[in-house]
Design brief:
It is a single chain. With 673 residues, the chain is an alpha+beta fold. The chain is built from 21 helices and 16 strands. A hairpin with a 5-residue loop joins strand 14 and strand 15.
Length: 673
């Protein structure tokens, strides 16, 4: 559209009309009504099928992303609509079972073999190398229906997560902390999956992740977002477990869990958020965050290393019976006393089951809750703040450049908004004057929000948090400078648009015939070169020929100077006298079409194209041909106007002939009827 607002508006209208025509082209009102009634039962059946189809549906079970990894390692996780739609589709009570743990420990495999054994046991893709395979957080596309203790059916959605301390991917302690914290909040049951052997370091790792969940709860509490839900249950799955080590010690799985619990050190920091006293030396933080904890030992899937490394290639029928038995134990532990996602009626943060009167949530309400947790629960692992003074200057310079670019983009958006509003409200009236003032106030308010917006954006930057003090000062200083620059730009645009609206109104009040006569009287004297004069700034040759579109404007190309554009117009006999040049739009050049009402680029007198300038040429090389074309346009305009003055007045001015020598020549031209 060459920067033309009127052209852009026209294009949008044409697209809408085109789509509407396709919808309505062959359908009468009655036929459309009968067709809609006929298809409603099919739509209802389809909806039911999608909700209850399970494994028999055409789509089948598959995994879809719920959270995407952030662009920077210490940024917030990003919600994915595909996964949110799975949650939104839940219109009845549902539970969530999630698997977390170190990378390459078999989380995806145990979920598949325990809960989807058979056709869909590889619903969550299983890696076969040494690098992390799962990235972000993934959710099953459909729930599994299970029987619960009271005999009723409960739908269960399963979540698989990226492994902690992975190789081959961009990650950070902050990313893992937020991942575990969000999974903790989402889940009815958390399966923490590790590999044999386990020792005090494994316990310390689990306790550290629990502390991250606690930090997220504290962040939500500080921001006024109370997490009113019962504590989830924890199932600790230890893969490739040598059961004989346990038997030789005369221990059961419960004894091992007790021993590991006692090996854990106390962590009283932040316990107050749970409403309890500071932890004693025997407190295991995991006990404070999970309603129950159960340890399940899982034996090796197969004797062959090749099979174990490529489990996705082999179905369960060839795996160890012991492994499948243990997978069933994981399933039983997860399904025991399973509760739907809910909100407790009682006030408090993560209550015990006995303290909570649960109110089950449907999917849409749960998605709203998850969005708030993500927005207000972001936490930062302090280990990611280690300073690297060697590249401090270079790092801050890169941050400064990114900030400057972002501020400039924001100001450009505000500037375009102000310019557009002034064009919309260009006519003189009390209401329009008020709307123009409101537009100025609105962009000014948004500009003053640069400080907060920049800090909110940059708080997710790993670079920013490595240098918090200097980063904050840099952002503050740049925001002040950007606001000053932007204010000057917006003030200039406001003055420019006020001048344009005044000029626009004056031009519209002047009859076109008088305007063109005045321009011709002021025409520069020919001096061997082309003679042309500026008619209007911020104006183009755009024409909306009776609503048919911009068909009376010729596009001559880009990359031209004003002089080159005038030369091209002069030599192109299809051009009339009017032409436009836009230096800021890559030297765009266009002209009005000879023999049409737009020959002088006056067909659309209400167009605004910022930066474009409209000219009229007095001695084009194709003058004779253009004069003949203007005569035809005059005759047609007078005929259309019935010979009366008014409709043909503009055409009469437009097609004024010149006293130029004429000679016979053969020309080729288009005929317009």
């Amino acid at each position: 559209c060459g920067g033309s607002l009127a052209c852009s508006s026209l294009l949008r209208s044409l697209v809408v009309a085109h789509v509407f025509d396709h919808l309505c082209l062959t359908t009468s009102t009655s036929a459309a009504y009968m067709g809609t009634r006929a298809i409603l039962p099919l739509l209802a059946l389809l909806e039911v099928g999608l909700a209850f189809g399970g494994l028999s549906g055409d789509q089948g079970w598959h995994a879809v992303p719920l959270f995407r990894k952030p662009a920077v390692s210490t940024g917030q996780l990003e919600l994915v609509e595909e996964g949110l739609n799975v949650l939104r589709a839940q219109t009845e009570p549902f539970a969530i079972v999630s698997a977390v743990g170190p990378t390459r420990t078999g989380k995806s495999s145990i979920l598949g073999r325990a809960f989807f054994r058979g056709e869909h046991e590889n619903i969550f893709e299983v890696g076969s190398g040494v690098t992390s395979h799962t990235g972000g957080v993934w959710i099953a596309s459909q729930p599994v229906e299970v029987k619960v203790a009271d005999g009723s059916t409960l739908r269960v959605l399963f979540i698989d997560t990226e492994g902690f301390s992975g190789v081959g991917g961009i990650t950070s302690k902050t990313y893992e902390a937020n991942l575990f914290g969000l999974v903790y909040l989402l889940s009815s049951v958390v399966i923490f999956n590790t590999m044999f052997p386990v020792d005090a370091s494994t316990v310390a790792s689990l306790n550290a992740h629990a502390s991250h969940a606690l930090s997220m709860l504290q962040a939500l509490t500080d921001s006024g977002q109370l997490v009113q839900k019962a504590k989830p249950r924890l199932v600790w799955s230890i893969q490739s477990f040598n059961i004989y080590n346990l038997h030789n010690s005369g221990m059961a799985a419960t004894d091992l869990l007790a021993a590991l619990r006692n090996a854990s050190r106390a962590s009283g920091a932040g316990i107050a958020v749970l409403g309890g006293e500071a932890a004693s030396s025997s407190t295991w933080l995991v006990e404070r965050l999970f309603e129950q904890q159960e340890l399940v030992t899982v034996r090796r899937p197969h004797a062959s290393d090749e099979v174990v490394a490529n489990l996705a290639k082999y179905n369960s029928t060839i795996l160890s019976a012991d492994y499948l038995h243990d997978a069933d134990q994981v399933r039983a532990a997860a399904m025991h006393d399973l509760k739907a996602v809910h909100r407790c009626k009682e006030a408090g943060t993560v209550l015990t089951l006995s303290e909570c009167t649960p109110q089950p949530l449907v999917g849409t309400d749960f998605v709203a809750q998850v969005s708030l947790w993500l927005k207000h629960g972001y936490i930062l692992d302090r280990s990611d703040l280690e300073l690297d003074t060697a590249d401090e200057a270079e790092t801050l310079n890169r941050l400064r450049e990114r900030n400057r670019k972002w501020f400039d983009e924001q100001c450009a958006t505000l500037n375009e908004e102000l310019r557009t509003k002034f064009y919309w409200y260009r006519e003189e009236s009390a209401d329009n004057a008020k709307l123009r003032d409101e537009a100025v106030a609105a962009v000014d308010k948004m500009m003053k929000g640069f400080h907060g917006a920049a800090l909110s954006r940059l708080v997710e930057s790993g670079v920013f948090w490595k240098f918090p003090g200097k980063g904050a000062m840099l952002v503050e200083a740049q925001a002040d400078q950007a606001m000053q620059r932007c204010k000057e730009t917006l003030d200039g645009t406001r003055r420019h648009m006020e001048g344009w609206t005044a000029s626009h109104r004056a031009t519209k009040a002047t009859p076109a015939q008088e305007l063109l006569k005045k321009l011709e009287a002021e025409a520069p004297k020919p001096s061997g070169g082309l003679s042309y004069k500026l008619v209007a700034e911020d104006s183009s040759c755009f024409s909306n020929a009776g609503g048919a579109g911009d068909i009376h404007r010729l596009h001559l190309g880009n990359g031209m100077t004003l002089e080159a554009c005038a030369e091209a117009v002069s030599k192109k006999c299809e051009c009339g006298r009017g032409f436009e040049h836009d230096k800021g739009n890559d030297g765009y050049c266009g002209c009005g079409m000879a023999g049409t009402p737009n020959t002088d680029c006056t067909e659309s007198d209400d167009d605004f194209s910022y930066g474009s300038a409209r000219y009229i040429m007095f001695n084009p090389a194709c003058l004779n041909q253009q004069s003949e074309a203007r005569k035809r346009a005059l005759e047609q305009a007078n005929a259309a106007a019935g010979g009366e003055d008014g409709g043909g007045a503009l055409a009469a001015a437009v097609v004024k002939d010149y006293d130029a020598p004429k000679k016979r020549r053969q020309v080729c031209f288009d005929v317009y009827d």
